[in-house]
Amino acid sequence: MDRPIGVFDSGIGGLTVLKALLHHLPNETFLYVGDTARVPYGSKSAETVTLFSLQIGTWLVSQNVKAIVVACNTASAHSLPLLRQSLPIPVFGVIQPGAIAAISKSRGKIGVLATRGTVLSGVYEQTLKRISYDVQVWSQPAPLLVPLIEEGEIEGDILEMILSKYLIFLKVQQCDTLLLGCTHYPIIKPTISKLWPEVQIVDSAESTAVTVRNELQIRKLYQEIVLEKNLQERYKIYLTDLYDTFLQSASLFLQSTLSHYELLTLETLENTFYSFQSHA
């Protein structure tokens, strides 16, 4: 089915998921929304995050996407059930695929590094325990990491100092696997490995992309025809706030040169949402 797939995140971290989707779904095109005007989501209430997610989700539906990938752990934790109930297309999150991947690698002790909102929701502990009832899980909120990464602080002394503080608790528990519960965090995986070389690191981007591909094939929504497009022609980037360093940061996340992005105003999101509500 030749329609794009929508992807959204609170900022640029979800580009790690977009990168995996571009690789695992080579015949698909994508619309990516980064809510850079309201980042981070991790420090906001569940109700606020759900409202933001519904606004973006309804706008993506208005753009004729055939499915939506919530490339944000906080939004997946708080809003996934309501998005699936409210929107007329399949909606995928990143938590279940990441949890399955962590269980497959772990010897039984899993640490979760995530935003405060994701940790407080308890969604990873609940999901991991559903998959394997005897797994031990410890979670550590890391509220400073997303703002640091958004500012381009992806290595160096400042990052190492803050990250070391967050990892202490999980190291004490002797976790053998570290599940990165935020799509921003894979970009700092080298620093995590430097500070904790013996731990296995799991991010959900790859497993989410495989899950989306398999589900679209089952639902007869997968694009089987080979696209005659280069990588940059396969996705469009929309931001709710424009800033100068985005292209440089996004290129690091995508590991590919990004040359263009467009503004999607909060007014447009709100108007689309309320119009959708009035016709529901």
Helical segment tally?
A: 12
Main β-sheet, in a few words? Answer: 6 strands, parallel
Supply the number of structural domains: 2
CATH topology of the largest domain: Rossmann fold
- The SSE order reads EHEHEHEHEHHEHHEHEHEHEH
Main sheet: strand order:
4-3-1-2-9-10
Strand content: 15-25%
Query: What percent of the residues sit in helical stretches (DSSP H or I)?
Result: 40-55%
Secondary structure: number of strands = 10
What general outline do the C-alpha atoms trace? globular
Radius of gyration based on Cα positions: 18 Å
CATH architecture of the largest domain: 3-Layer(aba) Sandwich
Task: Briefly note the structural class of the backbone.
Answer: alpha/beta
Overall mean confidence score, pLDDT: 91
Uncertain spans: none
The first-level CATH class of the largest domain is given as Alpha Beta
Note the gap between the termini. 25 Å
Please describe what this structure looks like.
By secondary structure, the chain is an alpha/beta fold. The protein folds into two domains: 5-93 and 206-273, Rossmann fold (3-Layer(aba) Sandwich); 95-204, Rossmann fold (3-Layer(aba) Sandwich). The chain is built from twelve helices and ten strands. The chain has a six-stranded parallel β-sheet with strand order 4-3-1-2-9-10, sandwiched between helices. Strands 6-5-7-8 form a four-stranded parallel β-sheet, with helices on both faces. Helix 2 (46-62) packs across helix 3 (73-86). The model has no long low-confidence stretch (mean pLDDT 91).
